[in-house]
Amino acid sequence: MSGVANTLEIGDRIDSYRIDAPVSRSRIASVYRATDFRDGRTVALKVPDPDLETDPLLLERFRRAASIGEKLHHNGVMRVYSEIERSRVYMVMEWCDGRTLRQLIDEGKITPERAIQISVGILDALQYLHDNGVVHRALTPESIMVEDHNMIKVIDFGLASDAASRRITYTNLSGELGTVDYISPEQVSGKRGDSRSDIYAMGVILYEMATGKLPFTGSSPLEMMKARLTEPPIPPSVASPSISPRLQEVIYRAIETDAKNRYARAHDFAHDLLHLDKVGVASRPELRGWKRRNMKLPRTIFLFLLLLLVPVVILVAMILLQHGK
Question: Whole-prediction pTM value?
Answer without folding.
Answer: 0.79
